[in-house]
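Example 3.2
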Amino acid sequence: VNEKTGKPCDNPVDLVMKTGTIISLANNTILIARDGTRISIADSGAPIRDTASSIKGVVLVFRDVTEKQRTEQELLKTQKLESVGILAGGIAHDFNNILAAILGNIDLAIHRLGENERVVPLLVDAEKASLRAKGLTQQLLTFAKGGSPVRRTVSIEGIIRDSALFILRGSGISCETDFQEDLWLVDIDPGQMSQVIQNIILNAREAMPGGGNVRISCRNSSEPASEKAAGGDSVEITITDNGPGLDPAVIEKLFDPYFTTKNKGTGLGLSICHSIITKHGGTLTASSPPGSGAVFTILLPASRSHEIVPEREEALPDSAGPGARILVMDDEEIVSKVAREMLQQLGHEVVLVKEGQEAIDCYRKAMEEGKRFDLVIMDLTIPGGMGGKEAVGHIRALDRNALVLVASGYSNDPVMASYQDYGFCGAIVKPFMLRELAVSVQVALNLQKQ
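Structure, written as tokens:
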């Protein structure tokens, strides 16, 4: 039958007998087995002739191309996600710069007005809305191509339990878990992986408004390499619900950007999940066996380490300390201005520059005049100019004791995760609040005292 129309195809034997030539069936042809299994096929037919060239029979050749088509569809889906991801990353970065000015100015206004002013509650509401927008840009950055996970070696069990409990609390949906006792550790970004689990379970919750059951199982898996996967040791996570299930047509588009079956929704949730798992070197698939609900299966490469890496914690500064002389580099005027206002609010002296070479020249001149900067805050990337990633090396060459703090709207950039490897003393994600900036600056200045 034709896969798209569901109508029976012309009998290939009749076509060969009628035309007397070699024929091939059209694309989208499938065979349906007695048990209902659907097999995509590519086939051809040719006449069998006797010595007098009369047709005595027909030979048909059928090739199962189900896996080939599935691989091609996955490749197309990945390319589509990458294209939209590049766009999403650029939008999120630019939006974060705008938010830095909005959120920073609102935060400054609240601090300067005091709690008794009538306008403050309005500013607080605006601040809350801006923070929600900040959360949306973080989702876009996670989805974007190039957003690298900040990995730690952890046990996935606790993350799954906490995520499921958070989403299902008060829903009337029960949750069963089945974890293998000696479950292998994984190298993951706990925040991103929690987002994946929460998104999948949230979909299950919304599919069962009248209540139901979610079952989560985890086991160790060792598979040989194949065309579908690289093979090796992995941790398999299976999340199953007893909802209405998924139509085959829905499963095909489930991880496509902006595809949704909900009246309200962005259609980004499962696309982001797919992107996160891919960046962790894993796979995410969905299925819906006849008569059952949706089944999501995650495969994550097992860690080679056998020790859990604890999350790094930075202590809060003891005090603000005396004012420091700080050089700020950012090409966005609205961002650099609000950063200057914040730092001056904290009692520091601030000099602004727009790109890396200007920052290097300014730092060199300050050293020659005996007015050395106590701290430099640099934007990671400068379109059309030298960004902080390159400029920090030149400044450290001028002054090996220079303290340079990196700031960026790309929170998932590898430099932000491993800033010390690139010569920075700390990192701060834009948009930031006054307190976040105060803590980051003081932690950096404390390094100078040490």
